[in-house]
Every structure is written in structure tokens, then in C-alpha cells.
Design a protein that fits this description.
With about 60 residues, the chain is of the alpha+beta class. It has one helix spanning about 45-55; strands spanning about 5, 20-25, 30, 40-45. About 20% of the residues lie in helices and about 25% in strands. The longest helix has 13 residues, at about 45-55.
Length: about 60
């Protein structure tokens, strides 16, 4: 079973619509909180770090 959590930046003003994340030693999963039963993105930890860096530099 996944232990999903929302960003601390998520709050009532955004309707609680956000990205949720579940971490494991072997992978990190991401899903849309509005549709939690649909597909997830799953990354190895090192690749997830590259993904986050790319998001931070995207305008």
C-alpha cells in the first residue's frame, strides 16, 4: 500500500487539487490528487532528482 502525501504548499485556496507523492527506497511515485485511481508516474530516486531539477528551471 502506498503512503501518499500532499505538498505543504497545498491548501484550501487551491481546492486541495495538487500533486501527491509516495516515496520508497527503490522508487518515487507521483499522482494527481483529483484522480488518484488513474495512472501514476514512477521514477528511480536518482531520476526523480533530475526530474525535479528540470521542473525548477522550466519557466
Amino acid at each position: 500500500m502506498e503512503n501518499w502525501r500532499k505538498s505543504s504548499y497545498s491548501g484550501p485556496d487551491d481546492g486541495n487539487n495538487c500533486v501527491e507523492i509516495a516515496t520508497h527506497p527503490t522508487h518515487i511515485s507521483i499522482r494527481d490528487s483529483k484522480t488518484p485511481t488513474t495512472a501514476t508516474l514512477t521514477f528511480p530516486p536518482a531520476t526523480f532528482s533530475v526530474f525535479l531539477d528540470a521542473l525548477k528551471t522550466t519557466p
